[in-house]
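Consider the record:
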Amino acid sequence: MLYSPGGAARQFCYSNAAGVGESVDLEFLRVAASYVSSPRQVTSGYYDFFAKHNATLWTVDRATRLATPMRLDVVYTFVNPRSPSFRRHLEARRVPFEHQRFRDWEELRYSLRSLREFVLASGALAQYHHHHAADVRRLGELGYQVDMRDADAVDGVVPLVRRVYLVLSDEDQVPEWLDAEKFPELRVVTHADMFSAEEAAQVLPTLNSNVIESSLHRIPGISRFFLYFNNDMLVGRQLSLFDLLCPLSPLFYERAVGWFQSSSERSPDA
């Protein structure tokens, strides 16, 4: 599976096993993404098809003519009610501190543990370049240069998850139990990192989660695709790519938005 970014031309495509494409667009239709193992007891027809073709997952940029192995980032938003900055923000807006509402049960600690166990340390979200050399050759024939600088490949294996971002309003909100040195994938981001100085002067500090969630794509260096977790979300088993998107269409979220939009446009009698 490849993602072709840029304007109206962006799309997810899959292979119909019709052979090598004669153009980059036909090549998008040929190539499929596959993973060596699936956490599911019974594999789907999609998975079996992709596994049979041993394909790899690439992100291509038509403007720069660069092709890179697709990587995902994970983003957490978190508020530490024990931090001095949080109390200051509440007092500045005359919002009372309610212990029942802002109590921290340290869900983030266990969420990060589940992420480590079932995502970062799981082979189900690693992409195996069985056909890497062939992909590089074919992409070169199509006019693309392969960039592996950010691939972190080990023995031909490219982890699909690249970094984990923890988004906080202020640096003093990093939980005291979190040892960032033992979590090399972790990056701490403050709200100010996501806004220009002029914007920050107008909107920060904020207690409105919608302001922050709608700006996560502005995290410096964030991947084109990322998974957004609240601090109380836990991963209970190995994830595969097919838990996140459907092989024959865009991301599940985009499909849901499209469905709601089309539903709202239907007549009451439809």
Q: What stands out?
A: The longest strand covers residues 161-168. Residues 45-244 form one domain.
